[in-house]
Amino acid sequence: MVDVLNPVFMEASFPVITTSVILPLIAALIVLVSPEKLAKPVSIIFSGIVFLITTYMLFAYDPSGYKIQFYEKYEWIPALGVNYEVGVDALSLTMVWLTGLAFFISFIWSVNIKKRIKEYFIAFLVLEAACIGVFVAWDLVWFYIFWEAMLIPMFLIIGIWGYAERIYAATKFFIYTFFGSLFLLIGVIGMYIYQFFNYDVLSTSYFDLVKINLPYNLELIFFLLLALGFAIKVPMWPFHTWLPAAHVQAPTAGSVILAAVLLKMGTYGFVRFSLPWFPEASKYFAPVLFALGVIAIIYTAMMAIAQTHIKRIIAYSSVSHMGFVTIGTFALNMEGINGSIITMISHGFTSAALFLAAGYIYERIHSYELKDLGGLARFMPVFATLFMISAMASAGLPGLSGFVGEFLCLLGTFKVSILTAVLAGLSLIVGAGYTLWLYHKTMFKESLLSAERIEKWEKLKDMNTTELLSFVPLVIMMFVLGIYPTWWIKLIENTSAAILSKFVGM
Questions:
Q1: Is 199 in contact with 212 (CB distance < 8 Å)?
Q2: Which of 239, 323, 423, 443 is the most buried (most CB within 10 A)?
Q3: What is the pLDDT of residues 304-332, one digit of tens each?
Q4: Is the pLDDT confidence value at 446 over 70?
Q5: Would residue 3 count as lying in a domain?
Q6: Cβ–Cβ < 8 Å for 23, 104
Q7: How many domains is the chain built from?
Q8: Does residue 198 register a pLDDT over 90?
Q9: How much is the pTM?
Q10: Could you tell me if 412 and 331 are in contact, meaning their C-beta atoms sit under 8 angstroms apart?
Q11: Distance between CA atoms of residues 477 and 487, nearest Å
């Protein structure tokens, strides 16, 4: 039987996970002491190596049974039960691979950065190490170290390389996420103390803490503490207000990482910790999470329609898509969990591509406002085609990645709450509406083209090699996941079953 309490540990013959965490830090040190002209190639090369490592892990992973693979464990503070413990199951692995892809693409995209080049790439390299660490850490002290370490480089990326209101956006991002992290820390410390006094065990290992049977009321309290930290990171309505500001002000690569990686940390936390640790509380609060998920889907979709700034529209759409992950997760069945993980992967592709598209438009037109755009398809057909595919994938067009995950989330939700599934399903129409409207306003609406604009835009160049290298892999993966989702579902299904194992018979 697949059981989260009894995983098989497969130790790595070579520390590939630790290597993937350390390599970006080594690259950051090299960039620090090297001439500025080496910052870009060093960062791209090292990030490319990390992506190759994560890709190797993805194809070398054995999906049969529930196994923690490429596992490493070393003593750190044995008196307190704290160890360096890393490894991956299918949930961790897909998020690590997505992280490697997103950062590699972001580094390629960033070759034209001109402001404080060394500091820029150092910030992204440190951020990459922290993000990978979050997804591979099985010791809660290390998990929290990586979780908090991520805040500083992203704060700097928004605050230094962002736009006019970057300081406000960076500060809001930091305050919100740090506030949530404090509740997460309180919850983890509480579990640690309870374990010591009731089991006479001192351990911060996930696999020890998951075995604790908490009293019902205490389980509800711990669930809420961790849920607040995860909900802010998702971000879940009504804790979402930091995200549009952060996306609007962040540089393009920063928005890509925010959407493709950082938002997944919150939903990853719910699936990884909340469900296996607090099964009774998860069932108890499922209706509340359904309600918040539906509100996020509908409310932020309506907010997206009301925006005129491209990045703000895409930011609100991200909150809406994370709402599907929320309802799929708390459907507490295989279809829902599989759908949540697939949606996280798909959203990594689509959101990254849409923010790259927004950045591409800004570099050509120097504006994110819809009133300054229109009719671009005539002048940039290659970009218009790739942008269209990304928009359709985000809207959930069958045959592309967005459809698979959202369908499974709705199917899983339908089994437990028809009303929630219907409301979320109807909102797909709104999502398709604002996505098509965004594309129409930027690419087709030639009534916005004055003679002066036509003369100016006839000189615009279509996508160059660097931009294609950033964009095309994401579009390819949208088709791969959309046309052949079976491989991905088989990869994750035993992990999903293990996560739900505590709910069997409940």
A1: yes
A2: 323
A3: 888 888 888 888 888 888 888 999 999 98
A4: no
A5: no
A6: no
A7: 1
A8: no
A9: 0.92
A10: yes
A11: 13
